[in-house]
């Protein structure tokens, strides 16, 4: 007996390469679960969307404590002298108090899992490209 493919199966197979190529672009637009689970309650990556914490729009390459319109920075954050890059973001997400003592991120204590931090940093970096 000959196996017959349905039209839907043939279409799915024909479109698979196109769908596969589209996945990375979509992933950069959609926050990973790591960001949603650990950051989104207090932060957004939308410009001007300050919440309990400042917007993380264009955070990679930005000076700490410098989002216009966000008034709740600690003095420690405003005077930290840090420019956010992959290494400083990773260290801060791991243990904010170790990087900038007396910051206002309480009760957040950090994320010990390096893989989770890597996903968050990659997402923040993807959202910080020149527009």
Keywords:
mainly alpha; 45% helix; 131 residues
Spatial extent as radius of gyration:
20 Å
**Approximately what portion of the residues adopt beta-strand conformation?**
under 5%
Count the DSSP helices. Answer: 6
Query: In which range does the helix fraction lie?
Result: 40-55%
The biggest sheet amounts to: none
Query: In terms of per-residue confidence, which ranges show pLDDT below 50 for 5 or more consecutive residues?
Result: 11-28
Question: What is the SS-derived class?
Answer: mainly alpha
Shape: globular
Mean pLDDT: 83
Total beta strand runs: 0
Order of helices and strands: HHHHHH
Distance between the termini: 57 Å
Structure report:
The chain is mostly helical. It contains 6 helices and no strands. The protein has helices spanning 7-29, 33-38, 75-78, 86-94, 96-99, 114-126. The longest helix has 23 residues, at 7-29. It is globular, with a radius of gyration of 20 Å. The N and C termini lie far apart (57 Å). Mean pLDDT is 83; it is low at 11-28.
């Amino acid at each position: 007996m000959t196996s017959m493919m349905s039209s839907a199966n043939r279409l799915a197979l024909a479109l698979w390469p196109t769908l596969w190529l589209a996945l990375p672009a979509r992933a950069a637009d959609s926050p990973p679960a790591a960001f949603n689970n650990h950051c989104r309650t207090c932060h957004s990556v939308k410009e001007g969307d300050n919440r309990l914490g400042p917007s993380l729009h264009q955070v990679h390459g930005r000076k700490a404590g410098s989002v216009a319109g966000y008034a709740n920075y600690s003095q420690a954050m405003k005077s930290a002298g840090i420019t956010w890059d992959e290494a400083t973001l990773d260290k801060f997400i791991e243990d904010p108090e170790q990087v900038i003592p007396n910051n206002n991120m309480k009760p957040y204590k950090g994320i010990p899992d390096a893989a989770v931090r890597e996903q968050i940093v990659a997402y923040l970096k993807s959202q910080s490209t020149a527009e």
